Automatic annotation (TrEMBL):
Functions as part of axonemal radial spoke complexes that play an important part in the motility of sperm and cilia. Residues 1-12 have a biased composition (Basic and acidic residues). InterPro entries: MORN. One of its GO terms (biological process) is microtubule-based process. The gene is Rsph1. It holds the Pfam family MORN. GO terms for cellular component: motile cilium. Keywords: Cell projection, Cilium, Cytoplasm, Cytoskeleton, Flagellum, Meiosis, Repeat. Signal peptide: none annotated. The keyword Cytoplasm applies. This is Radial spoke head 1 homolog. Its main location: cytoplasm. It comes from the Eukaryota.
């Protein structure tokens, strides 16, 4: 069902309201038969998108309310979260920053609601990766992350005015050679990086970006 404007060819054009066969509804602007301009799309499952469209795709600025109570407000490109936006997760965590292909990608800040801690730094395909700062209530960690875990040189900065320098080292998995390898043996879980302290100092200006400047 559709009620609204049409052009001389009979295509939906201008403002209109549509009831789709799958139970979804759309109310907003059309251009030559396609959703283009500003509109609100209500999904049968309870999700709602209100924002810009271009040729039937979410494109421009828009807010998406998901059925689980989470919400994204920001930039869209061809139906994907892309550009800059803020995501409020169902558990109360928030991410504010850059997106590409529906994933956290670029610079962004993730706040953990339960602990109040926040990660401020680089993301690659939804994973914490690159120079970053992990800020807790009375101290923070400055270093680099790889695949969501801290790795390499870094420092803990304490509010009392001192720093603990060191590095996160990836422990090596040791396999037991005595026993026969079983066919259905599960792969070992990756071990957590271990923090190795090198020195305690007063506050210093070192940051993970400094190493990039030294690299040839």
């Amino acid at each position: 069902e559709y009620e609204g404007g049409r052009n001389s060819e009979g295509q939906r054009h201008g403002f209109g309201k549509a009831q789709l066969p799958n139970g979804d509804t759309y109310e907003g602007e059309y251009d030559c038969g396609l959703r283009s301009g500003h509109g609100t799309y209500r999904f049968k499952n309870g999700a709602i998108y209100t924002g810009d469209y271009l040729q039937n795709k979410k494109h421009g600025k828009g807010v998406f309310f998901y059925p689980d109570g989470s919400k994204y407000a920001g930039d869209w490109v061809h139906d994907q979260r892309q550009g800059y936006g803020e995501y409020l997760y169902a558990n109360g965590d928030t991410y504010t920053g850059e997106w590409a292909n529906n994933k956290r990608h670029g610079q962004g800040t993730y706040v953990y609601k339960d602990t109040g801690s926040k990660y401020v730094g680089c993301w690659v395909n939804g994973i914490q990766d690159g120079p970053a700062e992990l800020i807790h209530l009375n101290h923070r960690f400055k270093g680099r992350f790889l695949n969501g875990k801290p790795l390499g040189r870094g420092k803990f900065i304490f509010d009392i005015g001192c720093e603990q320098h060191g590095e996160y080292i990836q422990p090596v998995q040791v396999r037991e050679t005595e026993k026969e390898e079983e066919e259905d043996e599960e792969p070992p879980l990756p071990l957590e990086p271990i923090w190795k302290v090198s020195e305690i100092t007063k506050l210093t200006p070192w940051s993970p970006h400094d190493e990039e400047l030294l690299d040839p």
